[in-house]
Amino acid sequence: MAYSYLISTSVPYFGTLVGLVTASTYLICAYALPSWFTLRLMARSLGGLERVLLWSLIPLSFVFSGIGLYGSIMSLIDDIEGGEGGGWNSRHP
Questions:
Q1: Distance of alpha carbon 22 from alpha carbon 17, whole angstroms
Q2: pTM greater than 0.85 (yes/no)
């Protein structure tokens, strides 16, 4: 717990950086990759509607991940321009 606290308070823009990593990886790992693996391994045993759903989840995951990544980048830019660096010397209202 102490290590987590130290990292979260000493790395500038920690929350925004975590959001950036999460936006670029979470949806792909949670939806796109399992859908792709299921299609590769079990395509013959799936119904037509299931295959269509899995095929549609793959590009949708990438699209929404891209939207989240764009939002995280814009948030990081706003934080940097606003001087809200976080860490030990941040300004809290």
A1: 9
A2: no
DSSP 83: T
Residue 93 corresponds to which amino acid? P
Tokens of 10: 């000493």
63: nearest Cα among 35, 20, 23, 34? 23
Q: What is the DSSP string of 4-43?
A: HHHHHHHSTTHHHHHHHHHHHHHHIIIIIHHHHHHHHHHG
40-68, pLDDT tens digit by residue? 999 899 999 999 999 999 999 999 999 99
Nearest to 23 by CA among 55, 52, 61, 49: 61
